[in-house]
């Protein structure tokens, strides 16, 4: 599926967006939206995603309504989603072509890609052909966290469009000022999100450690190698250890001398 195609459909949805449905469905054709789409998670469904401006969608309108009437008698629910008024579902299902049809049974999603004739729809259900179609992967399933996030993103884009129109039409804001305000808002939100992520990472994993003993030892070894290129890493460690031993011996001699002086004073 192409993300560019999905974005293109979203843009056409934003431009066209209307409250009226161009497709008049049969009573058995259930209209689904963002608030009731989870109805399809129970039982068996065939769901069509369409747009009023789509010629192919208009061409199969009568066929789909006849299929919905047949489904009402065959214990299968038939539904439709208008992507121009339901951008959230458009993003949740990543619709890249119109019309797109999904078969859903007990929460398992399969995309229908066969012919769009009434008899083909009936045969797909009655003969169990849907069992031969692979289910949508778990991470692209409409119920997954990722697709739910994309759904919210699509809804947010429509909210921005609504606020933009309100500023232009209701409050008389010029277009450039409205775009500037939205740009500043997005930058501010990104700034606060970034700061929140930094603070959260510091709280969970602790602040970064700016001093490391191994770095100091490595610098010391490099200095020894610069003064004497023939000195290896092992030799530099020996030099460091010998210096430490010399310091220990010197301290020991001082303590012994102090002890002898104390004994002479007592005698």
Write up this protein.
The chain is of the alpha/beta class and 267 residues long. It has 2 domains: 145 residues, Glutaredoxin; 54 residues, no CATH class. It is 57% helix and 10% strand. It is built from 9 helices and 5 strands; from the N terminus they run αββααβαββααααα. Strands 1-3-2-4-5 form a 5-stranded mixed β-sheet, with helices on one face. Helix 6 packs antiparallel against helix 7. The radius of gyration is 36 Å and the shape is elongated. The N terminus is likely disordered.
Distinctive features:
267 residues, alpha/beta, Glutaredoxin, five-stranded mixed β-sheet, 9 helices, 5 strands
Low-confidence stretches: 3-25
Q: Which architecture of the largest domain does the CATH hierarchy give at level 2?
A: 3-Layer(aba) Sandwich
CATH topology of the largest domain: Glutaredoxin
Relative strand content: 5-15%
Element-by-element helix/strand order:
HEEHHEHEEHHHHH
Number of domains: 2
Shape descriptor reads elongated
Strand order of the largest sheet: 1-3-2-4-5
The secondary-structure class comes to: alpha/beta
Short description:
With 267 residues, the protein is α/β, with parallel strands linked by helices. The protein has helices at residues 3-16, 55-59, 61-72, 87-92, 118-126, 145-169, 175-205, 213-227, 233-266; strands spanning 29-31, 44-50, 77-82, 100-105, 108-112.
Write the layout of secondary structure elements.
Layout: H1 3-16, E1 29-31, E2 44-50, H2 55-59, H3 61-72, E3 77-82, H4 87-92, E4 100-105, E5 108-112, H5 118-126, H6 145-169, H7 175-205, H8 213-227, H9 233-266
Parallel strand pairs: 1-3, 2-3
Antiparallel strand pairs: 2-4, 4-5
Helix pairs in contact: 6-7
């Amino acid at each position: 599926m192409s993300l560019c195609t999905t974005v293109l459909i979203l843009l056409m949805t934003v431009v066209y967006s209307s409250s009226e449905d161009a497709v008049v469905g049969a009573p058995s054709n259930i209209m689904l939206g963002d608030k009731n789409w989870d109805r399809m998670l129970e039982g068996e469904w065939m769901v069509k995603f369409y747009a009023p401006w789509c010629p192919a969608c208009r061409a199969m309108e009568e066929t789909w309504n006849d299929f919905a009437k047949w489904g009402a008698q065959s214990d299968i629910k038939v539904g439709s989603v208008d992507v121009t008024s339901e951008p959230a579902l458009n993003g949740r299902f990543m619709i890249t072509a119109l019309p797109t049809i999904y078969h859903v049974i007990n929460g398992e999603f399969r995309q229908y890609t066969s012919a769009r004739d009434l008899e083909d729809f009936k045969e797909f259900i009655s003969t169990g052909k849907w069992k031969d179609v692979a289910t949508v992967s778990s991470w692209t399933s409409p119920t997954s966290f990722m697709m739910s996030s994309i759904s919210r993103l699509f809804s947010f884009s429509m909210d921005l469009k609504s606020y933009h129109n309100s500023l232009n039409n209701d409050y008389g804001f010029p277009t450039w000022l409205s775009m500037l305000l939205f740009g500043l808002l997005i930058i501010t939100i990104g700034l606060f999100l970034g700061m929140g992520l930094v603070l959260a990472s510091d709280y969970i994993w602790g602040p970064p450690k700016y001093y490391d003993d191994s770095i100091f030892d490595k610098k010391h070894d490099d200095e020894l190698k610069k003064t004497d290129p023939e000195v290896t890493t092992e030799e530099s460690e020996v030099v460091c250890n010998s210096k430490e031993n010399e310091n220990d011996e010197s301290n020991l001699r001082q303590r012994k001398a102090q002890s002898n002086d104390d004994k002479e004073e007592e005698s």
